[in-house]
Amino acid sequence: MRFDLIAADDQDGKALRGLGTYGFINGANGFVVGALGAGKQNLEEYGYRMEQIVLSATDMGLGTCWLGGTFTKSTFARKIALKGAESMPAILAFGLIDDETQARSGALRLRVGGDKRLSWQTLFYEEGFDSLLSREKAGEYEPALEMVRIAPSASNKQPWRIVQTDQGFHFFLQRTKGYRSIMTRLVNIDDMQRLDMGIAMCHFELTAHQLGLKGLWGLQDHKVELPDDLTEYTITWIKDLE
Ligand SMILES: Cc1cc2nc3c(=O)[nH]c(=O)nc-3n(C[C@H](O)[C@H](O)[C@H](O)COP(=O)(O)O)c2cc1C
C-alpha cells in the first residue's frame, strides 16, 4: 500500500464528478491518493492507514473529507500511476477551513445528519449481541469505544458493532440493508463499509495506546452468535498482548 500527496489543480472539481462520490468538494488545496494491492482485509487496512493520515492532518489544523468512490480509473489514479492489480478505493480531500463553525453546521452536513452518531447501546455489546455493554463495564476501554462511536464513516452509516468478552473486543461489520444490492453498484459502498471498519480499528487502537492499554489485532474463534445475515466478523483486539 502506498499513499501520495498531490496539489489540487483546476480540473479536479470536474474530475470528481461522476466518480461515485456524494457531497460537494469545493476549493480543496490538495488530495491524498493511495494505491492498494490485493490481499485479505486489504480494504480494512487502507481505511486504517488513511484515517491515520486524516488524524495527522486534523492535528495540523487542516480540514479533511474522505471521498469514497470508483477512483481506480480516474485522473487521481493516474497521478499515482496505479499498477496492474492495484486499486484506489477512496481519496482524501484536504484544505484550510475558511470558517470552522460554518463548516460544521453547514446545510449539507445537517441535511445528511453528518453531525449525528448512533448511540452507545446500538453499537456495543457484552458476551453476545443480546446483552448491552454499559460504559462502566467497558471500564478503562470506555474512551477507546467512544472514539469509535464518533468516527467518520461512509454515508455516516457507522456499521461497526463491538462485542466485549474476556478475550478482548470482537469487531463486527453490520452492513447497511439494501446497500449491497443497489448502492454497491452506484458508489461501491459495499467496499466502503470495509474501509469504515479500518477507521474504527484506527480510532480504537490509537486511543488504547494513548491510555497505555496493551493489545494486538488477531483473528479469533469468537463464538459470538451473529444477529442476522448482514453481520460479519472482522477482527479482534486481543487484550494484554504485546
Ligand atoms: C469511506 C468513506 C467515504 C466517504 N465518502 C464521501 C463522499 O464521497 N463524499 C462526501 O461528501 N463525504 C464522504 N464521506 C464523509 C462522510 O459522509 C462523513 O464522514 C460522515 O457523514 C460523518 O460526518 P463528519 O465526518 O463530518 O462527522 C466519506 C466517509 C468515509 C469514511
Please estimate the helix content: 25-40%
| Bound ligands, each once | flavin mononucleotide
Task: Name the CATH architecture of the largest domain.
Answer: 3-Layer(aba) Sandwich
Note the total helix count.
10
**SSE pattern, N- to C-terminal:** EHEHEHEHHHEEHHEEHHEE
Q: Would you identify the CATH H-level superfamily of the largest domain? A: putative nitroreductase (tm1586), domain 2
- C-alpha Rg (nearest Å): 18 Å
What's the assembly state of these chains? single chain
Could you describe the largest sheet, including whether it forms a barrel? Answer: 6 strands, mixed
Shape: globular
- Count of structural domains: 2
Please identify the structural class as seen in this structure.
alpha+beta
How confident overall, as mean pLDDT? 90
Q: Name the beta content range.
A: 15-25%
Side by side, the strands of the main sheet go 6-5-7-8-10-9
- Count of strand segments: 10
CATH topology of the largest domain: NADH Oxidase
Q: Which residue ranges are poorly predicted, with pLDDT under 50 across at least 5 consecutive positions?
A: none
CATH class type of the largest domain: Alpha Beta
